[in-house]
Specification:
27 strands, Neuraminidase, 8% helix
C-alpha cells in the first residue's frame, strides 16, 4: 500500500503491508458513451426500470425489510429468475453501541439527520468480493476473483452467474453510462470494459494498482493508480489525464458529492480523507484534507455519500465513520464484527435494496444492512428523473 505514519516510501514499492493484503485477499476470497447527454440516458433507464417493476409484480418472493424515508412501506417483490446455480441466504439482526459526534447538514431538507443507527442485519448467500455495485433492476453485481465469475444477486441472497471474468484481484466494479461495467483489474493492471454477456475490452492498460473507480454523469471514469488519480474517457484512445498526484500515498475510496461539485478520496494506509473541487470541465482542483482518522491502524477502504452530503467510509476491521466534509466532524457507527469490511454503498431503491440503507461488504462472508434513514446520493445508473 502507500506509506504509514512513519514516513514515505517509493510510490510503486511492494511493501510488507501490500504483501499481507494480497495474501489475505487470496485466503479470504477462497471462502456513454460519454457524448450522450444524461437526460436522454436517464429516460431510457426509467423505461427499463418501469418494465422491471411490472415484471416483478407478476410473481416471486416478497420481503419486507422495514420502512424507508423514500418508500411507503409496501412489500417489495423480487424475482429469482433463472440461474446456473442458485444459493439462498438469510437475514439476521444484531444490536451494537456507538460513539456519536455532530454533523452540519445543509438546511432545510437535511436539517435533522437521524442519529447513528444501533442495529443492522446480515445478508448471507452472496459471493464475497472487494467491491460491488447495484444495477437499476434490483440486483447486486460483483466479481469473486477466487472463482473468476461475475455474479448477480437479489436481496434474498439468490445468485446467478452472469459471465466468467478471470483476475487474481478485482479492486472495483461500476456501471458505465452505456450500461457496460468497468472493472479495476489490479491483477492485470488495467481498466476493463465488461459486458453483461462476458465480452471484454481493455480501456486502459499498464496501470499501477487500479483499486477504486467512480463515474461522473458526463461519462468520465476516475480511477486510482497507486499514488495518482486518473481521468479516463472510455470512448477515446487518448491517454488518461493525471488529476491528483500524491507520491508515497495509496489512494482509494473515490466518490462525488451529491451535486457532483466535490470529489472525495482517501489515503488508505495513512488515514486522511481529502476533497477536491470539480471544475466546469470536470477536472479536479488541488486536494484539501478534510480529516485525519489515524488512530494507530486505519486501513481505509470504500467511501460513499448520502443525499445530504455526509461522507461514509469503511475501515477494514468493521468500523464505519460518517463525516461532515465541510467541518470534518466524525460520527462512529457501532463496530460490526466484520473480518474484512472493504466497501459500502446505499441501495438503488429497487428490488428491496433500499436507498436509505447502507450495505457493507465483509470479504470473510456476508453483507451488513444498516438502516441509516437517509437516502444515498443519486448515481448515473440509478433510476431517476434528474440529477439532484
Amino acid at each position: 500500500m502507500g506509506m504509514g505514519k512513519s514516513g514515505p516510501e517509493p510510490s510503486h514499492a511492494i511493501t510488507p503491508r501490500r504483501a499481507v493484503k494480497s495474501a489475505l485477499e487470496y485466503l479470504l476470497d477462497g471462502v456513454m458513451i460519454r457524448k450522450i447527454r444524461v437526460d436522454l440516458w436517464v429516460l431510457g433507464v426509467g423505461l427499463v426500470a418501469l418494465l422491471a417493476v411490472q415484471g416483478c409484480q407478476s410473481g416471486g418472493r416478497t420481503l419486507v425489510i422495514g420502512t424507508s424515508s423514500s418508500d411507503t412501506g409496501t412489500p417489495l417483490t423480487t424475482s429469482t429468475g433463472t440461474s446456473t446455480g442458485t444459493t439462498t441466504g438469510t437475514i439476521s439482526t444484531t444490536t451494537g453501541t456507538s460513539t456519536t459526534g455532530t454533523t452540519s447538514p445543509t438546511p432545510p431538507l437535511c436539517a435533522a439527520i437521524p442519529a447513528i443507527p444501533q442495529t443492522y442485519s446480515t445478508i448471507t448467500g452472496i459471493p464475497t468480493s472487494e467491491e460491488f455495485t447495484f444495477d437499476a433492476l434490483g440486483h447486486l453485481l460483483n466479481i469473486n476473483d477466487s472463482d473468476d465469475l461475475l455474479y448477480q444477486s437479489d436481496i434474498l441472497g439468490n445468485t446467478t452467474v452472469l459471465a466468467p471474468y478471470s483476475s487474481s484481484e478485482v479492486g472495483a466494479i461500476r456501471f458505465l453510462i452505456d450500461g457496460d461495467l468497468v472493472v479495476a483489474d489490479e491483477g492485470s493492471g488495467a481498466l476493463m470494459r465488461l459486458g453483461l454477456n462476458g465480452s471484454t475490452q481493455v480501456l486502459l492498460g499498464s496501470i499501477d494498482e487500479p483499486n477504486s473507480i467512480i463515474i461522473h454523469p458526463d461519462g468520465w471514469i476516475f480511477t486510482t493508480a497507486a499514488d495518482q488519480i486518473l481521468r479516463v474517457d472510455p470512448d477515446s484512445v487518448l491517454p488518461p489525464e493525471v488529476m491528483v498526484n500524491m507520491p508515497g500515498h495509496d489512494l482509494d475510496g473515490l466518490t462525488f458529492s451529491p451535486n457532483y461539485d466535490w470529489f472525495y478520496f482517501n489515503s488508505d494506509d495513512t488515514g486522511e480523507i481529502y476533497k477536491s473541487a470539480v471544475t466546469s470541465q470536470v477536472r479536479l482542483d488541488p486536494p484539501i484534507e478534510i480529516v485525519d482518522l489515524w488512530e494507530g491502524f486505519e486501513q481505509l477502504d470504500g467511501m460513499t455519500v448520502d443525499e445530504c452530503g455526509s461522507l461514509y467510509v469503511t475501515i477494514t476491521d468493521g468500523r464505519i465513520r460518517r463525516i461532515d466534509p465541510t467541518t470534518g466532524a466524525v460520527q462512529n457507527f457501532p463496530q460490526i464484527p466484520g473480518g474484512w469490511t472493504t466497501s459500502l454503498h446505499f441501495g438503488a431503491g429497487v428490488g428491496g435494496w433500499l436507498r436509505d440503507h447502507l450495505y457493507v461488504m465483509d470479504r470473510s462472508g456476508g453483507i451488513y444492512d444498516i438502516p441509516v434513514g437517509i437516502n444515498g446520493m443519486w448515481q448515473p445508473h440509478h433510476p431517476a428523473v434528474t440529477i439532484p
